[in-house]
Fold:
Amino acid sequence: TYPGDLATALVAFDATVYLGNRQVAVDDFFLLPGATPDREHAIAPGEVITAISIPASPAAQRSTYLKIRDRQSYEFAAASAAVGIEFEADGRTIKDLRVALGGVATKPWRARAVEEALKGKVLQSDTVRRASLLAIEGALDHGANHYKIELAPRVVARAILKVGETA
Ligand SMILES: Cc1cc2nc3c(=O)[nH]c(=O)nc-3n(C[C@H](O)[C@H](O)[C@H](O)COP(=O)(O)OP(=O)(O)OC[C@H]3O[C@@H](n4cnc5c(N)ncnc54)[C@H](O)[C@@H]3O)c2cc1C
Structure:
């Protein structure tokens, strides 16, 4: 599973990776295994990352990164979530939501189904917990990863509710 922390947040907030003159959306920068599992990213031979840009957004201004791990330091995420929320003027209705997961897939995983399910909804614990289950839609249980399928939606829900507390 993809082990990094930073890229999970970059995927949540639609960053762009600059490879010299070439630009790649960060979600396309990390590659699924497919027929080339040896290629984890879109850097071509000779290219280096020269810059990363993150578009300004109200969702990024109210955001958090929640990382669950086996021990407190020098440990990759068992599951993590980068979450940002923009609320309507009432401070309770979700206008924009960004959710990306780390530690659960071969690349940082944008949970668009969770985002779409909660946009326009009032932030409430049971609604958030139900929608967070969509984060693992289609996940394959290989036995060893069973705990991640249990854990990931809880991490997503906790992160969303944590951001909600700051509204
Ligand atoms: C015990 C341990 C625990 C860790 N835990 C975590 C963790 O919890 N979360 C987390 O996010 N990371 C974790 N890491 C990873 C660590 O953060 C990475 O090693 C670090 O981010 C890479 O930085 P570096 O300076 O070591 O990289 P470097 O060794 O300088 O580079 C890493 C790779 O990137 C390439 N590279 C460097 N710069 C560029 C560039 N501009 N363009 C293209 N390619 C480039 C290098 O060629 C190399 O292949 C952990 C590492 C260890 C050893």
User: Anything to note?
Assistant: The chain has a mean pLDDT of 96. The chain has two domains: 7-53, 58-165.
